[in-house]
Design a protein that fits this description.
The chain has eight helices and seven strands. Helix 1 packs parallel to helix 4 and helix 2 runs parallel beside helix 3. It is globular and about 55 Å long. About 10% of the residues have low confidence. The protein is an alpha/beta fold. It has a single domain, classed as Vaccinia Virus protein VP39 (Rossmann fold, 3-Layer(aba) Sandwich), CATH 3.40.50.
Length: 243
Amino acid sequence: MTDRQRASYNKRWGAMSDRPDRAHRVFLERLYRHHRIVDEMLESRADSTRPMLEFGCGVGGVANWAAERGAKVVAVDVSDEAVRVAAERSQELAHPPEFHCADIAEFSFPGAPYDIIVSFDVIEHIPPERLPEVLRALAERLTDGGTLLITTPNCERVGNRLRRLIGRPASRYHEHEREYTVRELRDLAAAAGIEIVCCQGDPLLASGWTIGLPGFHGLSRILGARMPGLACGIVLWCRRSAP
């Protein structure tokens, strides 16, 4: 990660606490969705004593939620400001997450292997040439039978398809290095030794990054809920490939 990117993320996370705007409401709505996913994963895990890993924890909205529910959590992010805020928010927890500020190349993965690894809205921020390295590192730290969950914007979301129809380029949030299609993600996962067990559409993820027309935010969510291929986001449930 470049110094410019790190500064941008630090500024973003430092300003995320009390924003009243629509973007923040969408952020909170997605966070609630992530909480529900984590609850489902924690309830179904086979070994509750193993730690879970959150890769790209931001300000700790998911990591602290899981720790509050009794999970042993290791969480890492490249933004020192995000990790500082996350740690501050965990101080009242009986067993707070173990937060780390590190690039994946420098991270020691304490407590590995993990039976749950989650990464919400992170891979689109990673330079494409580094993503295979990241996916391999996560796969190698997953237990046999463990679950890796990844969410990311859908490059083929309905807003982008409509933009192409009217001759406009696909939209992409300015901090995203690249967004992916489902086919591209399947190829990347297979090369990293990851098997995608289930691929779902997420109508909430990135639902604000559409086409800029009045009412389109709600319309894109409805279409994405009914037709996963048009959803704004992708949810991948993965496990290590069989040797």
